[in-house]
Amino acid sequence: NFSWPLAGRITSRYGTRGGGFHHGLDIAGDMGDVIKAAGSGRVEAAEWRPLYGETVILDHGDGYQTLYAHTSEYLVEPGDFVEDGQGIARVGSTGRSTGPHLHFEIRFSNQTIDPESKLE
């Protein structure tokens, strides 16, 4: 299981949303709040992605990855090893975003899964 990357109100859950599918969990935060690694692992990416904006992806092994989107600042670089709970980025509103928040995904074998099923 994974730990919560940000303490805040959930503003959008995983699943069908409007006419589409929301592949993660949106957690409200204040601009600049520290986003924490949901588990230990290696930084696979810290880069701009369409829609997601400034994004960090961690590889936790055993087929699991976590993705942290719309950030304002990276606190890690690709190749870094991070511990569970370590600061990896700051809350922002980059990419397709309507305000400061974290879009958080858990992927298993390259497929998104409901983050709330794995968070404790």
Structural summary, described in words:
The chain has one domain (21-108): Glucose Permease (Domain IIA) (Distorted Sandwich), CATH 2.70.70.10. It contains no helices and 12 strands. The chain has strands at residues 10-12, 15-17, 20-22, 25-28, 34-36, 41-49, 53-61, 64-74, 81-82, 87-91, 101-108, 111-113. The strands form 2 sheets. Strands 1, 4, 5, 6, 7, 8, 9, 10, 11 and 12 form a 10-stranded antiparallel sheet that branches. A two-stranded antiparallel ribbon has the order 2-3.
The run of helices and strands is EEEEEEEEEEEE
Nearest-angstrom radius of gyration? 13 Å
Looking at the structure, the CATH topology is: Glucose Permease (Domain IIA)
Assembly of the depicted chains: single chain
**Helix content range:** under 10%
Number of helices: 0
- Identify the CATH architecture: Distorted Sandwich
Cα(first) to Cα(last) distance is: 7 Å
When the domains are counted, the total is 1
* Uncertain residue segments: none
Protein structure class: mainly beta
Please summarize the sheet with the most strands: 10 strands, antiparallel
The level-1 CATH class:
Mainly Beta
Name the CATH superfamily assignment: Glucose Permease (Domain IIA)
Mean model confidence by pLDDT = 97
Report the strand count.
12
Q: DSSP strand (E) fraction?
A: over 45%
The backbone outline, from C-alpha atoms, is globular
